[in-house]
Write a structure and sequence with these properties.
The structure is a single chain. With 289 residues, the protein is α+β, with helices and mostly antiparallel strands. The chain has two domains: 93 residues, Phosphorylase Kinase, domain 1, CATH 3.30.200.20; 178 residues, Aminoglycoside phosphotransferase (APH), C-terminal lobe (Aminoglycoside 3'-phosphotransferase, Chain: A, domain 2, Alpha-Beta Complex).
Length: 289
């Protein structure tokens, strides 16, 4: 659904009455780059929307993402500063500051890079939920139930998940990013400038974030890097019961069963399928031991 320019201009006026919209350019499925004239100087902002399926599951998703960014920005995490929330017309959207930088998918020191990724995920999970009220976010248990009721993955994965979930212990709930992978981290030099795309954030077992991100790491960086990343994360979180990680690996696979839709080409889709099948097979084998 397109957003009327007038709707955007009214939102900008609430941030700064002197701002004028110069241009609007789509960056991704849900992000648009706004060029704003600020007293003769060009300024860049980001406008974020949400898809129909996400809004059907959580009608307040725009408000929830805005509130979460307010909390995380004030807490010092490297996230965009939320500037405006527009809910008065369809579709709702939010405007944030522009975060410079680019994703990184390789490093001269691969092991060190993987450890930094694990430390970044741990920092997200360490957000103090006694200090910040995050009760407005969806619960992992509700997301999992919706996934099992849908048809996001092949039957053997859904059946294994359904059988295993009732018998596992859940770790203490934490803030989950929901889509943690190298493509959602923006770097400038060696500095992490931004963690983006918080629309899938929820509350639940940290292993769920780890399991889903392990598959993303496998695709982006390879099996060895995935294992370094996983081992370092678990080493930083010694109090976690990691026994159910294969279950959360499977949940991640269920959520990412549409991987072919974001493969660069047929060759890439074939490579990702082979890695996906290996990842799922390893998780299923682990559950049978």
């Amino acid at each position: 659904m397109e957003i009327e320019a007038g709707h955007i201009k009214r939102a900008l006026e609430r941030i700064n009455p002197g701002w004028n919209l110069r241009s609007l350019r789509r960056l991704s499925r849900r992000a648009r780059l706004l060029q704003v004239d600020n007293a003769g100087e060009a300024e860049q902002l980001i406008l974020l929307t949400h898809g129909d399926a996400d809004r059907a599951f959580n009608p307040d998703i725009a408000r929830d993402e805005y509130r979460l960014l307010e909390i995380l920005y004030a807490d010092g995490l490297p996230v965009a500063r939320p500037l405006a929330l527009a809910e008065e017309r369809e579709p709702p959207f939010l405007i944030t500051s522009f975060v410079s930088g680019a994703p990184r998918f390789a490093s001269e020191d691969s092991a060190s890079f993987c450890r930094r990724l694990a430390e970044t995920l741990r920092a997200i999970h360490a957000v103090d939920m006694t200090e910040h009220d995050l009760s407005f976010l969806p619960r992992l248990s509700d997301v999992v139930a919706a996934d099992l009721a849908g048809r996001r993955a092949e039957e053997r994965i859904r059946a294994a998940l359904g059988a295993a979930l009732g018998g596992i212990g859940w770790n203490e709930s934490a803030l989950l990013h929901g889509d943690f992978w190298p493509g959602n981290l923006l770097w400038e030099g060696d500095g992490l400038n931004g963690i983006v795309d918080w629309e899938d954030a929820m509350l639940g077992d940290p292993l769920a974030d780890l399991g889903k991100s392990r598959l993303e790491m496998l695709w982006a960086l390879g099996a060895e890097a995935m294992e370094i990343y996983s081992a370092h994360y678990l080493g930083l979180n010694g109090s976690l019961d990691a026994g159910a990680l294969p279950v959360w690996d499977l949940w991640g696979a269920a959520r990412l069963a549409h991987f072919a839709s974001f493969a660069a080409d047929a060759e890439g889709a074939g490579r990702m399928k082979a890695q996906y099948d290996w990842f799922v097979g390893a998780a299923l084998d682990a559950l049978q031991k």
